[in-house]
Design a protein that fits this description.
The structure is a homodimer. By secondary structure, chain A is of the alpha/beta class. The first copy, chain A, contains ten helices and 13 strands. The A-B interface holds A 3-4, 6-9, 48-51, 54, 56, 63-67, 69-71, 74, 77-78, 81-82, 84-86, 88-89, 92-93, 98-99, 146-147, 150, 278-282 and B 3-4, 6-9, 12, 48-51, 54, 56, 63-67, 69-71, 74, 77-78, 81-82, 84-86, 88-89, 92-93, 98-99, 146-147, 150, 278-282. The first copy, chain A, binds a DNA duplex through residues 9, 22-24, 32-43, 55-62.
Chain lengths: 311, 311
DNA sequence: ATCGGAGCATCACTATATCTGATCACTACG
DNA sequence: CGTAGTGATCAGATATAGTGATGCTCCGAT
């Protein structure tokens, strides 16, 4: 009566005998000899501690005992499930099924992902895409390392060697000022000294900004912090202060703010797509990366064109 | 890539490694050596044709590949199902679970079963009872032989040696006549010669009745047949004819009919409870038989007392 | 009654698979 | 650069599942 001795082939034999009525025909179906099936059923009965069949002897069929009926029902579920697993795995190998979980953050979700997902699903309609959005890049990277995510959009730089990052586009830092300022003007970095600033709480690129400001001898003075881009911009609009933001997070169509270049410029943040090195991925996941590269190239062209127009 | 080589222990190893993160700890949990688990996972990967884990090497945990994630989900279902089977079988062995399917026919369903089931469920509240009612005793016996039924109420006599029958009670045949006749009177069998009769279609005891009538030199003349006892009695009430019925099928409280004894009497039908010989039964099924014997003994006492009163 | 056949159990034997224990190779980290 | 922790691999002892032959039991037919 050792349940760990139960084997899949025992369950298959159980079902075959239950359906065929005799050990011999079951053996034929399974491609074994009658002797083998007899031993398999015997082993199963020893393992579970109950007889599975009444064997009337003579030409009358073996019939299930109550315990046997119970086991057959479970065996059917188990065997069906294994068959299903085989089917699904075949589909996975054929590329006609699968799931990709992608980490993302607000800017990417708004500016990049819709186009990428649209194109991807057009190519791979049977592959499921799931998104995980987080403010906290370390959290996302931990999940990527743990295998919970297959890919993750990241701000390159704050990423260690466990990951390989494909660069997608540069996102320049700009100064966002109330509309009283001149649109597109070049603004000396020193203007920020002592000025009231608006920023994020602890996003990855906020650290980049502060680091650069301090390198320029400016100790930033935040009068408001929010992780919502709209809220940040609304406060600028209200005249509460200035904000250094990545261009992609700025709503450039807002007439109530002026977008200005910094002088000297802060090195732009690089948006990338990270994969855990050495981890097996679906081919479709790599295709997803390619599509993201394409989409971001288009986006970069558009940004540069817009900047030229504004200058 | 031979799915039939997949073994339960492989699935257990898969799950253990997925949860523990390393082969060694999984081995510890399973009571094997690391080497064994490594070989088990390797065998599984060979069987399904896909790597289940990425092994980064060094102290970093093994993580599931997409195929591995798929397999783990199925493995969990399979393993849980087996655990459930073990639980249910233990309950079956302990007598605290199970299902008994009982064949029955109209008289028994009405006069005997309610009391038997009531007492049985009081004793075995966790055992499920399922009833199959049929007019056709051959059909019921075939199902009993096939294992579909565990027990079946039968009219003894028309039962072959594949079954053992426990006698429950004798059910005497009586003549049911319109109320104009005298209640309880002894009626010569010859009175039925040429009389319009009401009977069943092809029930087991109808054959007994006809056989006895013919043995007495009477060719029965049926003017109405129904398998519904109420309908038969209603037609007698309406004066359409006489009916020879087993006493238990008669509603003796009906003032519009007279129940009379036949002279010479037709040998009573014996109601019994049949089991397929040699078939494993739940202990509870045998207990069900005992209770049926008790209930029918009470019923017999009651019938005899009532007959004495009527005489 | 006896006999033949169908059906399951059992036996002896072989091939194979599984486990253990030792060792190797690799990686991260101090 | 060594150490610790990891999985892979190897060789060998052991156990197991299979085959084919045989035995036993029961049913039904002659």
């Amino acid at each position: 009566m050792v349940w760990s001795d139960v084997e899949i082939r025992h369950l298959a034999a159980l079902r075959a005998v239950a359906e065929e009525g005799t050990f011999g025909r079951a053996a034929e179906r399974l491609g074994f000899t009658q002797s083998a099936v007899s031993q398999q059923i015997s082993a199963l009965e020893r393992a579970v501690g109950e007889r599975m069949f009444d064997r009337p002897g003579g030409p009358r069929p073996a019939t299930l005992t109550p315990a046997g009926r119970l086991m057959v029902e479970h065996a059917a579920v188990v065997l069906d499930r294994l068959a299903q697993a085989a089917d699904e795995l075949a589909a996975l190998q054929a590329g006609s099924a699968g799931r990709i979980v992608v980490g993302t953050f607000q800017t990417v979700s708004v500016r990049v992902l819709p186009a990428v997902i649209g194109r991807f699903l057009a190519e791979h309609p049977h592959i499921e895409i799931r998104l995980v959005e987080s403010d906290d890049q370390d959290d996302v990277l931990a999940r990527l390392a743990g295998g919970e995510l297959d890919l993750s959009f990241v701000v390159a730089g704050a990423v260690d060697e466990r990951f390989e990052v494909v660069g997608l586009c540069e996102d320049p830092f700009v100064l966002v000022a109330p509309a009283a300022s001149t649109q597109g003007e070049r603004r000396p970095l020193d203007d920020l000294a002592g000025a009231p600033l608006i920023g994020w709480h602890a996003a990855a690129c906020q650290a980049l900004i502060d680091q650069e400001l301090r390198a320029g001898g400016i100790e930033p003075d935040y009068v408001f912090r929010s992780n919502d881009n709209g809220a940040v911009q609304a406060m600028v609009r209200a005249g509460m202060g200035l904000s250094v933001m990545p261009l992609l997070t700025v709503d450039v169509d807002d007439p109530a703010v002026a977008v200005q270049r910094l002088d000297p410029p802060i090195p732009p943040r690089v948006i990338g797509l990270a994969r855990a090195v050495g981890r097996t991925r679906l081919p479709a996941a790599d295709r997803f990366v390619e599509l993201a590269v394409d989409v971001c190239a288009d986006l970069g062209d558009e940004l540069r064109a817009r900047a030229r127009r504004r200058r």
